[in-house]
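Listing 4. Sequential folding, example run.
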Amino acid sequence: MRLSSGKYILLLNPDTLVEEDTFEKVVAFMDAHPDAGGLGVKMIDGRGVFLPESKRGLPTPTVAFYKIFGLSALFPKSKKFGRYHLGYLDKDKTHEVDVLSGAFMLMRKETLDKVGLLDEEFFMYGEDIDLSYRIQKGGIRIITSPKHG
């Protein structure tokens, strides 16, 4: 990432399959939304089932409590209890979110130049949350869109 010189940087899991025109669509979306610093997409598993980590809220202690103790699973559409996976947001619409999944994170290089890269102190898991948090703290929007994955 430090050596990159492009306008955008994409973090993509190595086992991810993308549609033929995904990259053209996500770049066009970002070009049309210059206030967005990061973009996620609607992700599905190998059986075509929506992956809720496509749209996530910041896992504050309260939000994590609701998830750990099953309240978010009991009330996934609740604005109070469903904040971990933002279950109250339509998965088929574009939304501003708190956290992008590291499985597919398209970011502007200028955003990363401003807020920093992935924190290398993380061995695995959570670095996408940390980076998303720093992007938002930098006053930059994070968006997830189902039309581009």
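-- end of first protein; second protein begins --
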Amino acid sequence: MTELKELTESAGAEVINTITQTLDKHSNTYLGKGKLLEIKEYLDINQINTVICDDELTPNQQLNLETSLGQKIKVLDRTSLILDIFASRANSMEGKLQVELAQHEYLLPRLAGQWTHLERLGGGIGTRGPGESQIETDRRLARNRINLLKSKLEKVKAHRQRYRSKRKNSGIPTITLTGYTNAGKSTLLNMLTSSNVLSEDKLFSTLDPTTRKVTFQNKSALITDTVGFIQKLPTNLIASFRATLEETLEADMMLHVIDVTDRNKLMKVNAVQSLWKDLGLDQKPVVTILNKSDQLDPNEDPYSDHQLMNLIKILPNPIFCSATTGFGKKEILQTLETKILQ
């Protein structure tokens, strides 16, 4: 729920309250009847117009929730919230295509609920066949748009493949920055490569992959910053960003960046490693970076942080660093160069 709050604030909304309920299984309205009445009263009293659920709702659940809470209440789920953030962050043509594809695939099964007020017969010349309803028209248009976007992204994928082949033929090793969103990957890229890539204290501030050259004593390599991971990352987003994620699949090694100050760092490391497994990255060489170490309390015993001690035990030779101050830069570069030259 803390992460959902951070996501909501990243999207530009103000979080008024969080409400939880434990159910054996989700009903058609996602919540129990009593909890729904409680929330409806709370919304009316406090004049709140948006409800966000920390799961992906089925089209029926979303429609039933909106009906139960009132037409003026907008109901969003975790997936639509993340899609909204991605849409606001995408800058490149590729990023915009990927986000639009994910949005259309998410909205397609929900069109019936959105257009019930327009469900009527129509027969426009050249636009739809006789007897075709508005819903069917919108579904057909959405499918056509999805096919067009997929076709465009296939061309992007082919272009990326040619670019990667050229890099491989040149013999330059490639390293990918990976990890949970907002762990400091872009700031670390700037530190290691003396570049000026946009880095913000926001979830998903980086969507478009950025590649920079890093020079060691005896060799050079290319480091690519990619989109950050998150638990319960929507499957249609993973599919849409497949071309981008292939940068990590093709890399010689990964630089796993972890926010050492995060209260939930162990859970987030597990979430990242689970996504690696899903994407076929779990056997790739990894260098682990414990970032933001300058923010650790010097008066606090590090052994009292059980999550940190568990990470140090389970992760091979993690390097403490601060991407903002430059602490740990020399050790990171030496470690990368040693592994590359092996």
